[in-house]
Prior knowledge:
about 70% helix; mainly alpha
Amino acid sequence: MSSDLCTSPYCNAGWGELLSHLSPYGYANFGIAFGLGFSVVGAAWGIWLTGSSLVGAAVKSPRIRSKNLISVIFCEATAIYGVIMAIILANKIKKPDEASYQLPENWDFPGFYYAGYGMFSAGLSVGLTNIASGVSVGIAGSSCALADAQDASLFVKILIVEIFASALGIFGIIVGIIESNACTFPIAALEN
């Protein structure tokens, strides 16, 4: 990016300047943060939905307490998917061989930005998918607890729906891994 696109000395006069001048390392680290953070939010939201219904239904039918903890475990799996993706993405960030204030002119800038944007999109897609997975597992787990309190034969039937809801998080991490496969930060300048 050229510095003459800036209207302020620090390229921070507006969101356009700020986002267009952000380092690819910044985008990559934001991708890691969004993937991990949104996954934890999805897990917490699902546990909140499941746990509140589980505790309420256990008043009428105490036998469901231990059996329905599987719903909480499925919710927690969405946070684990975010941790796995954060580890994968963090291991892809490489610093240049020679530390300097400015990168050389023959640096692979397209590859540099491609890696940053790719890691950002991988982390964001995993995080948003895990929010959806955590909420859907939480709603299915809530329904499972309430149905099991009424009729014990419904537990396995609704648990299957909950397993399919949890599969959304697995699909998200697979998409994130595919997106991040081509993200390789250059560590040296291109040969002339």
